[in-house]
């Protein structure tokens, strides 16, 4: 869909807003508003504020009836958070704000399809996913880098960006112009990301759920959870943990040791072992303690010291499809829009554009190009423990 900046100007005037008053209402400067009315598409969170301020729908400000988002964002909420109209609009708006980079030529064929929903199917899908990660003969949980490699093997584009506060998720899956995409929240602790990204990977290989029945939706979510849990904690790993637990009175300490060694949450392992009870919060408390010790978000791993050029190098390794798309389109987008896409400052976006456009890097750029992300981003976690 094409952004209608002229329509925004018309609606603002019709509702007796001054430019200053409207800019203040949506939390931007007047130059930003002027950029919008001259064609720049607002970022996701600003689209939400525009809709609220003017009391309009998305289609009132976009030309054409065909949405770029062909599958509504699917996601398992974090903790006790619930889907709301606000959060649904926010995920849709965030997805729409990235849609300009995709077109029909970017649509790949899918590597793996899981049409059947059953316990046996869940086990088979989990086995195939671990094979794609090179873990068919391993008993250990996958690293986050291996999960990202799985997305690439499935021909799913992983996009790293910070989510607005209305989206209380670690990640969500959608389709943009036919391309399968998983958005991953960079402000999330790396400790928490393996399971939800695996969950979204399962969504990516499932048939589109046509039903709006909540029970059917819950069954679909439970199936994705089951596959993700089997991939993260395979039977051989569970047997190893059970052996360590037998005869050891330090129940929580044993689980903490495994969680530290393999960089995963304790509660997820406890659930897989059948130890997690609804009323028992001790495992979640232990997770919170471990999270505070680690103090590593995905952004910290991808972009240490706020170096945009290093981030790009890491991005190429962690999400080659997203990197290739940015490289292909970088000369067709403004620096401001590129800054939104790669979640960096305007100044850093200039360097990003230079590197992506294969131009001669600046002296500052050359100095900032550092070593690639460690083969396991979680290795930096383990060093701190």
Question: What keyword list fits this structure?
Answer:
6 strands; 4-stranded mixed sheet; alpha+beta; two-stranded antiparallel sheet; disordered C terminus; 3 domains; 434 Repressor (Amino-terminal Domain); about 5% strand; globular; about 375 residues
Structure description:
The chain has 385 residues and is an alpha+beta fold. It folds into 3 domains: 2-65, Orthogonal Bundle (434 Repressor (Amino-terminal Domain)), CATH 1.10.260.40; 67-307, no CATH class; 310-369, no CATH class. Helices cover 53% and strands 7% of the residues. It has 20 helices and 6 strands. It has helices at 5-14, 19-26, 30-37, 44-54, 85-98, 119-132, 144-153, 194-204, 214-232, 235-245, 251-262, 266-272, 282-294, 298-302, 308-318, 320-329, 335-342, 346-356, 363-368, 379-384, and strands at residues 2-3, 62-63, 69-74, 157-161, 171-176, 179-185. A 4-stranded mixed sheet has the order 3-5-6-4. α7 runs parallel beside α8 (194-204). The longest helix has 19 residues, at 214-232. The radius of gyration is 22 Å and the shape is globular.
